[in-house]
Amino acid sequence: MPRSYAFHARPASRAPVHRWRAWNPCTPGSFTRPARPATMASMETIAAPAAPAFDWNALFDGFVGRLRQSGAGLDAPKLYDRFEPFALPDSRGRYVDIADRLAEGPVVLSFMRGGFCPYCRGELQAWHEAIPRLEAVGGHFVAVSGEIGGRAEETRCGLAPNAEMLCDVDHGLALSLGLAHPMGAELHASYRAHGLDLADIYGDSGMLLPIPASFVIDSGGIVRYAFVEPDFRVRPDPAVVIAVVEACGPVNVPF
């Protein structure tokens, strides 16, 4: 089984905190602390407890469970399938034909949700460090995101400037590969309530999300590695993927 690893969001308890210097009346130049009104002291005794933190993991577990029940990702390309040729604009507005990249060697094709996703950011950062090793064995890294309006380029520049990012408008390519599925009203509403408008990010209804997936496609257009996981919190280890690319060797079959 291919080795994988998960990127975990930083728990709230580990979030950075401001460390304020304690007030000390003996410090030269310190202010005189004003007396607190009695009403303020009484209010402190009846203050409502802090609201519990939103349980994103429980929400994500339910979402992933529904994806698995629906068979999401089962129709995606599999090992030794021929990957159908495609062309998409890159994050800088230039059309890229995947056949041109495959003519240069194997391609690692990675479908991502976008820069708003901490797991996608973690994966891109890992690939930023791994791309030199990938290129040393003749491979090329291509990420695919449905982000529009310059967001895909912002994601690329901010996390992996040495990567190539393609823009999958309306998730057209992901849909054709069985990699885009409805997120459901609960997850959509929770994202909106926390300020994340996927309709604005993707330029569509905002109700679809791509399933992160990674493929190694050899220069003959054959899938040599396929990692399709409905749980978007789990991503492949770049070292494992690079080992597959290295094992591909030169292939002279036309795409």
Automatic annotation (TrEMBL):
Location of the Thioredoxin domain: 77-250
InterPro entries documented for this protein: AhpC/TSA, Thioredoxin-like_sf, Thioredoxin_domain
Single GO term (MF): oxidoreductase activity
Transmembrane segments: none
PROSITE patterns named in the record: THIOREDOXIN_2 (PS51352)
Name of the protein in question: Peroxiredoxin
